[in-house]
Design goal:
alpha+beta; Tetrahydropterin Synthase, Chain A; five-stranded mixed β-sheet; 2 helices
Length: 116
């Protein structure tokens, strides 16, 4: 079994309902998507361009430049990461990691999260 990972960047704004006094603010998020699999006849797990296109079409087109409150009742880092995992579940995921800054991230692996 091997793993193939790709990182993506997107920017979004949010207002956390529970963070009283915290103003509307934005983050430059870093997303890591790691898929698993065995080598195919071409010597790859999967085409990295395929993973990139799926992540762009499903996640980045929706969230990049967005106001996360339009999509999430409570746009916490945890809720956004869970949504990304669920949306990309069919990619044979090994992990999804989402950073909202260089020091704070949420990581989901198959043992920790199953699709609804």
């Amino acid at each position: 079994m091997m793993q193939l990972g790709q990182d993506f960047m997107f920017s979004a704004a949010r207002k956390l309902p529970s963070a009283k006094g915290t103003p509307l603010h934005g983050h430059k998020y870093r997303l890591r998507v790691v898929v698993k699999g065995n080598l195919n006849e071409d010597g790859m797990i999967t085409e990295s361009a395929t993973v990139r296109k799926i992540v762009k079409d499903i996640v980045l087109k929706k969230l990049d430049g967005s106001y996360l409150n339009d999509y999430f009742k409570v746009p916490t880092l945890e809720n956004v990461t869970k949504w990304i995992w669920d949306e990309l579940y069919d990619l044979n995921l090994m992990e999804v990691v989402l950073w909202e800054n260089p020091e704070l991230f949420v990581r989901i692996t198959p043992d920790e999260k199953r699709k609804k």
